[in-house]
Amino acid sequence: MNYNNVDNKEESLELSVVIPVYNEAKNITQTLLALRQNIAIPHEIIIVYDFDEDTTLPVVRSIKDDFKNLTLVKNCVARGPSGALRTGFVRAKAPRVLSLMADMCDDFTQIGKLLNLVPVHADIACPSRYCKGGAQQLNSNMYLKVLIPRVAGFLLMLFAGIPTYDPTNSFKLYSAEVLKRLTLRSTISFSVTLEIVVKAYLLGFRIVEVPTVWYDRQHGKSNFKLGRSIFAYMPWFLLAFLCGRIIRLPRKWIHKLFGLLDKPCGIEKIEKT
Predict the structure, then answer these.
(1) pTM for this structure?
(2) pLDDT single digits (tens) 184-234
(3) Which of 28, 95, 161, 202 is the most buried (most CB within 10 A)?
(4) What are 1-5's contacts with CB under 8 Å, separation 24+?
(5) Could you tell me if 48 and 21 are in contact, meaning their C-beta atoms sit under 8 angstroms apart?
(6) What are phi and psi of 51, to 5 degrees?
């Protein structure tokens, strides 16, 4: 059955797919077709964009009749992927939420495996480029972009016990219950992906990683800003280390400093915009 051409009712949905986009006109059709080939359960696709002039939008609107389960949503948290993901998480209706990018860098053939893991064996499934069996196939010179996330993941695993070497990877499958339990604050770059993993780990949710291969984009240009991203990741590194294997602050202090369970992710802010 082709679940992309069915007007799925909310109660029948098993998966919500959240895709932030930024001028992905050359990639979005291929992304949607790849999802069609690799998702065999009732699902919805939520494409989140920042601005009305995004080149992705005309392409999506031209093919929308072929994807009845597709919704376009404007980012109303903060411009950038973290705000787009938070917007999509609030709109998601299914008990599982898959986040991915529209640059065709991720291995969508793994989606079935991730679905088998969540929620039976895990609350978050993390495809990892840096664990045993993982890899990155890059066409360009991106030494720092590879080295810094790899080192960061290693340090978080070593000193904080975070059970994945690739916590900043945006390609993840979440139990919706995890997202509902967290207070999310990130607004810059992809920092919300690290925030979710760190907070979920501290709250005792089950996190597993599976090796994945990450491919360099074939079309378009990445809008990733390394320096800005490092700055945005720092609060969640600090949170992980303060609750890690070497230092462990009282939980009440952590809740006041970083917020873990105050309200559902982003809903209050979105409703006010």
Answers:
(1) 0.86
(2) 999 998 999 999 999 999 888 999 999 999 987 776 666 555 567 788 888
(3) 28
(4) 2/36, 3/39, 3/40, 3/41, 3/42, 3/43, 3/69, 4/32, 4/35, 4/36, 4/45, 4/66, 4/67, 4/68, 4/69, 4/70, 5/66, 5/67, 5/68, 5/69
(5) yes
(6) -145, 150
Domain span holding position 70: 3-272
Q: Is the pLDDT of residue 112 over 70?
A: yes
CB atoms within 10 A of CB 176: 19
Mean pLDDT of 81-107: 96
Spatial CA neighbour of 193 closest among 69, 84, 43, 56: 84
Angle at CA of residue 211, ends 102 and 145, nearest 5°: 60
Q: What is the DSSP string of 100-115?
A: --SSS-S-GGGHHHHH
What is the residue-averaged pLDDT of the chain? Answer: 86
Q: Which CATH number belongs to the domain containing residue 50 in this structure?
A: 3.90.550.10
31-85 residue pLDDT tens: 999 999 999 999 999 999 999 999 999 999 999 999 999 999 999 999 999 999 9
In sequence order, what are the residues at sequence separation of 6 or more whose Cβ sits closer than 8 angstroms to the Cβ of residue 178? Answer: 123, 124, 196, 200, 205
Overall number of domains in the chain? 1
Beta 43-49 vs 70-74: how paired, if at all? Answer: parallel
